[in-house]
Write a structure and sequence with these properties.
single chain
């Protein structure tokens, strides 16, 4: 079973559902923000932890984050394939000894370029992805690469965009899962209303190509036998 952990009612899995359906991979979503129990990693094939408007340290206002961090620590210890997206990547960094800055000087909004370093270009998560690639960003906070992890990507504004921990455990700062409806929803949370959607639509074909490839690569890695 492929698990999706949703941290925020307004941050759904978007394109990830399509990728999992195309691969015929059974999945379930737990709404951690609503108090859904998070299953034991031992019974899972892989997990994706999604983003949210809250910060990684906002456990007083959002107590479910403590449960998500505990789950991620258990998943890492068990060697479960894991992908943390935006807040999910920040929670993974925090869970593994990295630093999450809130607010950060490295915030980004809208369509931006991400650059793979040599390790990223050789990593199977980014196989078939052009370098640099175009993706969508919406974050005020940022993470550092935690101890024992390998930095895979950066952007002109944000020095840590993706990292890998030993095994198939990844954190990314960008949003490969979003689609038009999600970006349109998020634009409505700004006052006055933002317009990230027009830039997204202009770059949508390029964005979709890179994002589907990254998500499909993670699903494929998750289903492959673990490498020694």
């Amino acid at each position: 079973m492929f698990l999706i952990v949703q941290n925020d009612p307004n941050c759904p899995a978007g394109m990830l559902h399509q990728v999992l359906d195309a691969a015929r991979v059974p999945f379930r979503t737990v709404c951690a923000f609503a108090g859904d129990p998070i299953p034991d990693p031992a019974g899972l094939t892989a997990a994706v932890v999604l983003g949210g408007e809250m910060g990684a340290h906002d456990t007083e206002r959002h107590p479910h984050l403590s449960r998500v961090v505990a789950f991620m620590r258990e998943a890492v210890a068990a060697g479960l394939p894991l992908l943390g997206i935006c807040l999910g990547g920040q929670l993974l960094s925090h869970a593994c000894g990295g630093t999450v800055s809130s607010p950060s000087p490295h915030g980004e909004r809208g369509i931006h370029r991400v650059d793979l370093n040599a390790a990223g270009a050789a990593d199977p998560l980014f196989a078939g992805v052009t370098n640099p690639f175009v993706t969508f960003q919406l974050h005020n906070d940022s993470f550092t690469t935690p101890p024992g992890a390998t930095l895979l990507a950066s952007s002109p504004a944000c020095p840590a965009q993706a990292f890998r921990l030993p095994g198939r455990i990844y954190g990314v700062q960008f949003h490969p899962e979003v689609d038009r409806s999600i970006v349109d929803l998020w634009d409505g949370f700004f006052t006055p209303r933002a317009d990230h959607l027009s830039g997204f639509i202009a770059a949508e074909e390029t964005f979709n190509t890179a994002s589907r490839t990254i998500l499909a690569n993670f699903v494929s890695l998750s289903l492959s036998p673990a490498q020694p």
